[in-house]
Amino acid sequence: MQNIITQTIRACAAATVLAFVAGCQTDNQNSASSAVSTPEPSIAAAAPESAPPALTAGADGEYRVKAGSSEPFKDSAGHVWQAEVGFNGGDVIDRDPGTVIANTKDAGLFLSEHYGMDSFLCRVPNGKYLARLYFAETFDGITGPGQRVFSFNVQGREFKDFDIWVKAGGANRAYIETVPVEVTNGEFRIAFTAQVENPAINAIEIIPQALAGASDAVTSAPVAPVTPAAPVLVAPVVSAPLPTGPTAPAVLQIEASQMSGKVSPTFFGLMTEEINFSYEGGLYGELIRNRSFKADAVVPSVKPDTYEVVS
C-alpha cells in the first residue's frame, strides 16, 4: 500500500513538472512571437525647411520690399516696392496716412512697418550689393531716446544698440542705414535681436553694386590726374608812392535832417574820436568838463570843488 502511494505521488510530481515546463515554453514562444510580429515604432523624419521667397527685381535690376504692406508701393521716382515677404515672426501695422515724415519725399514708404520680427530672409543671386534699411520712429509710445533699442546683423555685419530715435534725430523722421554686403549662397539674411521694446523696420532695398550710383559706391571711382597748367607770367604791380607832403584837411559833413536809421530816444550827444574817427553817442563827462581833471582855458585851476554835481 505504501509503495502504491509513493508511485502515485511520483507520477503526480512528474506530471506537474512536465506541465510547468510546457507552460514556460509556451510563454517563451508567445513572447518571441510577439517580439517578432510587433516592430519598433519608427521616428518620423523632420519636415524639410521651406525655401525662402525669391525677391522680384524691378525694371532697374534692384530689389525693394515695403515692410508691413500687403500691396506694392510706387515711390516718387517711379520705383515699385513689392509687398512684404521674407519676415519671420512679429507683426505688422499701418500708421495714419496723414502722418508727416521729415527727411524724405516718400512719406508713404514709412507709414507701414514690421515689428517684433526675428529675421528677414530672401533669395537673391550671388554678388555684391548695397543693402539699404529704412527706419522711422512712428510709434507714439516712443517719446525719446533709449525707449526702442535693438541689434541686427546684415550678412555678418553687426549693428549693436541701434536706436531709431537717436539715428533719425527724433520721431517721424526718415533714416536710411546703408550696408555693403556680399551674397555667396543665394540668400540674403538680416537677424534682429530685441533689447528694449521691439525691433522695427519700414523697408528694405538691395542694390547690386554694379548698378549703384557714384554716391553709393563703396569705393569711389579713380580720379584722373590733373596736369598742371603752364605758369602764367604776370607783370609786377607798381604801387603809386604815398603822398608825403601836406594834404587838405578832412571835412565831416553832417546832414541832421537826413536820418538813415533809427535813433534811440535816449541817444544824447555825439563823441568823435580823433584818432580812428569813430563815433559814439551817450552822455559823457567830456560834454561837461574834461573828466581827466586837466586844466583848460575855462577852468585854469582844477580843484575838487570846481565841479558841480549834475543830476
Keywords, please?
alpha+beta, disordered N terminus, 25% strand, 13% helix, elongated, single chain, four-stranded antiparallel sheet, 311 residues, Jelly Rolls, 2 helices, five-stranded antiparallel sheet
Give a verbal description of the structure.
By secondary structure, the chain is an alpha+beta fold. Among the domains are: 146 residues, Sandwich (Jelly Rolls), CATH 2.60.120.430; 34 residues, no CATH class. A hairpin with a 4-residue loop joins β15 and β16. The chain is elongated, with a radius of gyration of 48 Å. The relative contact order is 0.11.
Please state the second-level CATH architecture of the domain at 63-208: Sandwich
- The fraction of residues assigned to DSSP E strands is 25-35%
What is the residue-averaged pLDDT?
Answer: 75
What is the CATH homologous superfamily assignment of the domain at 63-208? Galactose-binding lectin
Classify the helix fraction into a percent range.
10-25%
In the CATH scheme, what's the topology name of the domain at 63-208? Jelly Rolls
- Uncertain residue ranges: 1-6, 12-47, 214-226
Order of helices and strands: HEEEEEEEEEEHEEEEEE
Shape: elongated
| Main β-sheet, spatial strand arrangement | 4-7-12-9-10
What is the radius of gyration?
A: 48 Å
